[in-house]
Write a structure and sequence with these properties.
alpha+beta, Protein Transport Mog1p, Chain A, 2 domains, 16 strands, about 35% strand
């Protein structure tokens, strides 16, 4: 088969001028991705990987790999993108988010995470950017970021945009899935549970681990507490409905409840 189909769109090596397909289309589903990526496959599986289609494109001695991963939903695809992007480099206007470096281009569109990788040494960014732009036009899907990204303040971010953590948010197993943003030494987090009751249960189990717990005055919260953790530092967490919203690693002298109140005010009820 020459080329492949992604959600009804034909994808071929023609997005790279002068390149042609070498070998058959690659297909990996679920844990078979290990056969292709070995130790790196876990980083895809935790984000809800479904399947990957891939092409090897060649022109003389040059070789470029095109891999398109289908994830379980758009949020998971965007999460995989944020886990792969280089926070030291600028983003590109591709899909819902993209990035191009000398030997690789990545972007996310809908529930698809797209990668183009040049095998040869050197700066292939112009070639990869043009090919990524062509693929962006072909592959269907939303170009909208997850709404929760916009709930975090953009001022003061120190480690790139907020990112989806697919398990153990802040390294806490009870916080199964959520978003984290870094502001200096402090980390803001938003975790959404299935219901207010579930969120309350998670909060109760988490807080039960601490010897000293104090009530916090967080505007608009159903519950709010301040605790100290050996590894995470001072934590202020609030529950409103099904969401747990807070800051960890709040430095001494900072008003933790005020920080959480400001974040909570940005989150739709």
């Amino acid at each position: 088969m020459i080329g492949l189909m992604v959600a009804g769109a034909a994808i071929a090596c023609g997005v790279l001028p002068g390149f042609s397909q070498q070998g058959p289309v690659r297909l990996y589903e679920g844990e078979t991705l290990f056969e292709y990526m070995n130790g790196n496959s876990e980083g895809y599986l935790v984000y809800g990987f479904v399947r990957m289609h891939g092409l090897t494109c060649v022109q003389g001695s040059q070789q470029v790999l095109i891999d398109i991963s289908e994830m379980k939903d758009e949020e998971s695809a965007y999460g995989l993108f944020t886990s792969n992007r280089d926070i030291q480099r600028e983003a590109e206007t591709l899909g819902a988010g993209g990035q191009v470096v000398p030997r690789k281009a990545i972007f996310v569109k809908g529930k698809y995470f797209i990668e183009l990788a040049a095998e040869a040494q050197g700066d292939h960014s112009a070639l990869l950017r043009a090919a990524a732009q062509a693929l962006d036009k072909s592959i269907p899907g939303s170009t909208t970021r997850p709404e929760v990204i916009g709930w975090f303040p953009s001022n003061g971010l120190t480690a790139g945009p907020p990112r989806l953590v697919p398990q153990s948010v802040l390294g806490v197993r009870l916080l199964k899935r959520g978003y984290v943003a870094q502001y200096g030494v402090a980390k803001a987090f938003i975790v959404t549970e299935s219901s207010g009751e579930a969120a309350g249960d998670v909060l109760a189990k988490w807080i039960a681990r601490f010897e000293t717990v104090a009530k916090a005055d967080v505007i608009g919260a159903d519950d709010a507490l301040v605790v100290g953790d050996k590894y995470l530092g001072r934590i202020c967490v609030a529950r409103r409905g099904s969401r747990l919203i807070g800051y960890a690693g709040v430095p001494a002298g900072a008003d933790a409840p005020a920080l959480v109140s400001a974040l909570l005010a940005r989150v739709p009820k």
